[in-house]
Design a protein that fits this description.
The complex is a heterodimer of chains A (about 280) and B (about 425). Chain A has twelve helices and no strands. Chain A is mainly alpha-helical and about 280 residues long. In chain A, α3 crosses α11 and α7 packs antiparallel against α8. The longest helix of chain B has about 40 residues. Chain B contains 17 helices and no strands. The chains are: A mainly alpha (about 280), B mainly alpha (about 425).
Amino acid sequence: MSPKLKSALELTGIYAIFAFMTVIILYPIVWAIGMSLNPGQSLYSSSIIPENWSLEHYKWLFTDPRSNYVTWYKNSMIVSGCAALFSVIMTSVVAFSFSRYKFVGRTSALYTFLILQMFPVMMAMVALYIFLHLVGLLDSLTGLILIYVGSQIPFNAWLVKGYLDTIPRELDEAARIDGAGHFTVFWRIILPLAKPILAVVALFNFMTPLFDFILPSIVLNSPENYTIALGLFNFINDQFSNNFTRFTAGAILIAIPVAVVYLFLQRYLISGLTAGGTKG
Amino acid sequence: MSQHQEQEQLTSYQKKMNPNVAMVLSILLAGLGQIYNKRYMKGISFMILEIAFILATFDFLWLGLWGIVTLGTIPGVDHSIYLLVYGIVSLILIAFAFMLYIFNVRDARKQAILLNNGWQPPTFKQAIKNSYDKAFPYIMTAPGLVLLIFTVVFPLLFAIALAFTNYDLYNSPPRYLVEWIGFANFTDLATVPIWQNTFISVFGWTIIWTVVATSFQIVVGLILAVLVNDKRVKFKKTIRTILILPWAVPGFVSILIFAAMFNDEFGAINRDIIIPLIGGNGLPWLTDPTYTKMVLIMIQTWLGYPFVFALFSGVLQSISSEWYEAAEVDGATRLQKFKNITLPHVLFATAPLLIIQYTTNFNNFNIIYLFNEGGPAVQGQNAGGTDILISWVYKLTFDTNNYSMAAAISLIIGLIVSVFAFFQFRRTNSFKEEGNI
């Protein structure tokens, strides 16, 4: 067999694998889109290519008085937005202290963070439930945000600290010689340089609450407080086959913007993770 | 002469500072040692702090400590769980106060020694500035720390405490009291047949699930990354985008869609693929544990490989082509190049993140619960056929309200997870990067 033929055969094999993967990847996605365009509500009578397609489910989500979809969407945006914002503030401040200062308790705090970030929040769900009940934040978005912001600190503090350690200290020393205080160094020197990793933290902490199902299901119990994941799950949880087409319509409306953002940002996500992750 | 006398007076007056006296005094009451050292402002503010702390929290601490020891004595009046919560909060407060106290004692002793060596105490203004410099990292970390304590540390301590009680549906306050029962939950897990059976099968499946699903993810991701990286492949960007798509779709949406597709009766897999191709009534995807397990692993591979793929692609592009050229000169085969150049590069750069993949899957509640709620049910055990430890904990907590057993299993999960943590970060170099201020 000539090397040229061999190479051509190999290449064909590689493309065949890609074609196969493409089918596996796209099939569920296309199927879901097809489902959402089926006029009926039952899964049984629906097909991937609907005979008479319609947008009635999308219309229902936004116009029907029984639909809470817009509220859920809004709740999710509030929770995710606040979680991302406060996470960035808290984490950058903590990571800055750990990266640039020597203080009593620093090493033990770092070790504690290391161990804490390994424990899933879920392990302590009973306690969280009782705690929120005690302080009266059960069934409120505030309680949910507090837990998200608090529980991300250990992991992200490590991530950001790893990144900050790579920023030369000569920069802050130079600024200090010029008379900059602690805050000025943080605000004017460190923060602008740490933007890439902070973007990663923001994105992660925006996405996690958006897709999280378990914590909202513990904390929230009135439908007008649901986040989108919880609301959509309850669409199909009660009568699975009855509302499935409606669920797909709602799911697609959240999946598309998220997918677009991810595809644009994945390069930065990966570089941020490897930069902080391998060194930290 | 008078100057000389004054000098003598000053030295003799300074010699009087006995570090041990300062230490003992500050143990007796915070700030006394500082006053003995003639640092009046500091001493008085320490004293006020201590007295205020004692006055403000004494009743609460007393109740909390009494509560955590007894868990209440009168059924219907004392609420054991609240008492336990107060107890843990008291312990956290006491730990903090204790740390401050140690600081105060060490400070008194250190300053007495410094004064003896002729150190001039800073002026008031200078002292304020110094303490601001010293306190800055604490001020910066304090809000995060407080939040962390209430949302992570406190719940974990509570879960640990709960594992040693008998808190369940039949034993719940305010009607009944909860009691400390030592390791009884753990011995139950090991000896009572139904718990033992369930624990062994759930634990076994959790390990298989973690190892197999994660390894699949990594292998598929690696193969695809290497293939796309091949020089001859065209349209790399488009192919990468398609391959990353499953990562971009929100996980809970994909899982629920898969759950519908694999539905035994109306799912697309049975209706459109299995029955037309193989015939029969379709496969029992959601009603037979073995099939459900297979599907779960396949779905997790679908969901998880893109992250690994993206990670590896990034590393592969950064490997210098000189390595490969040098290997070609030496006549290395493709397999040799892969084994000796590609693999070490890729694994070295991504090892910590790959380990995180394993721990994530170990606790991957979402896919197990959303796909089939841990089901199908299996005889002879009180967890579903595909429940992993964490979803079993969820069910014990919210379906059967067996809180103490759920906490005991959580504790076991925690122990396993800490072993992972130890291995992952043993070689980390973040500790070597000391702060320098």
